[in-house]
Sequence to fold (257 residues):
Amino acid sequence: MAAAVARDLYGEKTLLLIMPSDHLMEDVEAFHAAVSLGEAAARSGHLVTFGIHPSSPDTGYGYLKCGVGIKDAPGVNEVARFIEKPSLELAESMVADAQHLWNAGIFLFEAGAFLEEVMHYAPSIGAAAQMAVHAAEKSGIRITANAEHLASSPSESVDYAVMEHSSRVAVVPMAPGWSDLGSWDALAALMDSARPLGPVTTLDCDDCYIRSDGVQVAALGVRDLIIVASGQRLLILPRGRSQEVKKLLSVMDSMAA
Fold:
């Protein structure tokens, strides 16, 4: 929908930089430099993504393999393939070969080029999105998409629907001190685990991330845990397994049903 709005307002060649809101860039200048590198490739019709040099064989991230360099776009490579959340053994081999990067899920492309690929590989999503925009309610700069058209769109991520199929995807390798704050493990890695947050009392605890927004939490002699209390719910899990929380929620939902 954003690409359709940008195209209608500013034209096919309008560049969009798509960035998730839960990412941290410690070196903003390095990120800006990577975006500048990607602009030439985006101007030539590529869908540019940004790859992070992996620091560990993390199984919670998607990976991509760098292909050949792109002519007239120094520092940018074609994407040879995507690998979605691999096994630990595969992740270790990819980190070791230095040809694979974490897929940061940040994109740079021209509105028209992106919509062309969407309509080619995911036409039902593209049609629903564009109809939802064209039939939207507009008030000043506010655009409220048409709910009926939007509801007709299949629920699928842009990676699965478009990026993994398109031959026009390119990647800019970068190292801006990136962290995806989409998991408790990622947040715990950035925070001082020796300073619990909220009404928390600890004794003889090591490498734990503990926080509460109300319930009194007391922990004694535990190691490598994430403990989060919010409202009437308490989450306890080993560090390194926060990507599996969705499985836990599925079990909870099935029990409630």
Notes: The first strand starts at residue 15 and ends at 18.
